[in-house]
User: Fold this.
Amino acid sequence: MTSERRTPLYEAYHSNRYERQALIRQYQDQYECRLVVLSDFFLQADSVPFLEETLSDADPSQELYIILHTMGGDGNSALRLVRQAQSRCTELTVIVPDQAKSAGTLFALGAHHIVMGPTSDLGPVDPQFPDPQHPHRLIAGKTLIRAVEYAEERIAARPETYPLHVSLLAGVSAPLLQTAHDEISRSGELIKEALSVVTEDPNAVATLTDRLCARLVDEPTDHAAIVSADDAREMGLPVRKMAATDEQWQAIWRLWTKYIVLNASRVYEGIRSSIVLAWPEADAE
Assistant:
């Protein structure tokens, strides 16, 4: 609906969306690219059609910039998303204004360029799963495995604590635990596949995969571990580090603050398409 066809009340209801889209358009015009925002707490299978909606009229002869924010999700979905994005542009730049953890880091590995500033963090590639007791929260695979191992040790030492540990781990099934083990063991392959999206040099992919597996999979013990722009550069990632005073970073931050205030669980937005989903009511407590 063009501005000429909007009624005053309709436009008033959607004024914040139009303001964000105006800033997206300004960025596109100034930096000669296509810009979309992908802010999703948990990347999953239905993230693919949502992103496709924002890219429905993308020009494949144009560069694509994606502002990415996520705490993680399904690694396979992250690979599908970055392949999808790469097919719609000449070069892909991922902008990380805040955090792109786990599956988000995988997505970034498949880009030609990664833009990071003073507030930006990547993270370990550690598969995550919905918390069995809080389905809209995430729990890292390593954390899940450690919790079960700790419970087994305590029960072996003090069998009378069995009921306590069973209640603490309610909902953790054997298939879930095995899936955590399987996904962690596949992390290296996911990293390799993500890197292969952007380069066809098998030797370069193998060398960087080994380095990243050590730094992003094997060494981290905490899913909350951070990877700064300097860390990412040192690992060999194609990071462009921006200062807070950089004009381009200020334009990114001005737009990103609109999404901070929006406080939605999932946002897929461009100049024409806008999908905004609120947090489930259970998470508002």
Observations:
- Residues 15-31 form the longest helix (17 residues).
- The chain has a mean pLDDT of 91.
